[in-house]
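Field reference: sequence -> structure
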Amino acid sequence: MPRTQGGAGDGTATEDTALLSIGAVLGQLRDEFPEVTISKIRFLEAEGLVEPQRTPSGYRKFNARDVERLAYVLRVQRDHYLPLRVIREHLDGLENGERVSLPSAAESPEGSQGAAVEPETPAELRIGRDELMAATGADSAQLEQWESYGLVAAGRDGGFDAETVAIGRLLADLARFGLEPRHLRAVKAAADREAGLVETVVAPLRRHRNPQTRLHAEATARELAELSVRLHAAMVQSALRLRLR
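Structure field:
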């Protein structure tokens, strides 16, 4: 992204001289992006799209280049439905002086005369029961317990995906503290409710005929899931602080 140039007579860059708080950045961006929120800006930071400075007390401070990057990300998401991974590659290219091309309306399925083609989805990694137990350190009885309480579930092909491996490892770690599957039913129920809430938000996008819009739905769902996880963690920490005082 182009850097702000020009100093007061000395020709040096001045992008760091006018640092903005996250609230001030939000005010600037909302002229073009009325739906942007502070949570969205924090999410884009967490995804590595922008790296604001921090004051000694931990407050974010954004320079002009940061605001330009945020505006670019929001604009490309809105107009081209590109996933954040691709947008990050575009930003890296722009930083290196490369020319970056964006898909035009004619290249999108809605702008073409041919039939819409669903983007290919890479095959998921699937493992069997023995591999899952080896990866999590669980035995057959533990795995059956996890399944009986709905904490993990095999796919239609009988295999387990990467998320199930992560869940299994966390369940095994919690078991060392005496937390059994029956204690974690409320966690699973809360996760299902949160997933349902995300699904409600993105459902209109997922029903869209344009495959690019459906890809945007997937990116939005991931973003909402990340925010939900962070909210849940913050609430648990807050509740514990109150209980342990």
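Note: Residues 2-16, 105-123 have pLDDT under 50 and may be disordered.
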